[in-house]
Amino acid sequence: EVFYRNAQGDEIVYVSEGSGVLESQQGRVPFREGDYLVIPRGILHRYQFDGQARCLVIESAGYVRTPKRYRNAFGQLLEHSPFSERDIRRPEWFEPHDERGDFPVVVKKDDQFVEMILAHHPFDVVGWDGYYYPWAFNIHDFEPRVGRLHLPPPTHQTFEGDGFVVCSFCPRPYDFDPQAVPAPYNHSNVMSDEVLYYASAEFMSRKGIEYGSLTLHPDGLPHGPHPGRAEASIGQAKTDELAVMVDTFRPLQVSTAALAVEDPAYHRSWFEE
Length: 273
Description:
This protein is mainly beta. The protein has helices at residues 229-233, 256-260, and strands at 3-6, 10-17, 20-24, 27-31, 35-39, 45-49, 54-60, 100-109, 112-120, 135-138, 157-161, 164-169, 172-173, 193-198, 214-217, 238-239, 243-248.
């Protein structure tokens, strides 16, 4: 039984597979597949998984919030926002854990982990007050936008942080103009690195990926649909794709751990067969 506190950043945890309960001093947040769990920095918490799980963890140096263009001057989500406050699930209160003993808490600070031992249960709390708590939002509650012609990826923005945005690609109808090409056009990210996590095996413009794949397209490298994917999208009515995209406005550095699992043939998936 280990508890955790990230003291250096907010976290967005996308639950790609599995279910359980996120417990904190503010209460319980039951979660399921497709949930985004937003955990502000400094919140002491732990996960109680029902079984095996697969999650994508995004850490933000600044605070995570809803996109500014979705909110009015008072912070309320506007009617044109692709989700509303009703879709956000707050913690459910539970009874205090009145226990004594040794309770380890792992704290992350300055990219290091430190363990401290509490003499009482961390959830020995009878109440709390404020607006600072973890919350959940399910990707399937995001209402995707569809246009007569292809809409750019920022249309699907779900969260923003300092120097990055998170977008949700969800099942949706394709563009509805008779001459529309639903697949995205070739493009080059300017001042932005693009990371895509494929939460399903289908993605309309890609091949060479599978469920759980993660791709990085750095700033300045043109990319777009694989050969044949644009043509195949013509006349299609809808897509069942599910993916999480992170666009950063500062360059990303690839870790040694990532290089160890890199697919060295991925770039060749654009070659004509």
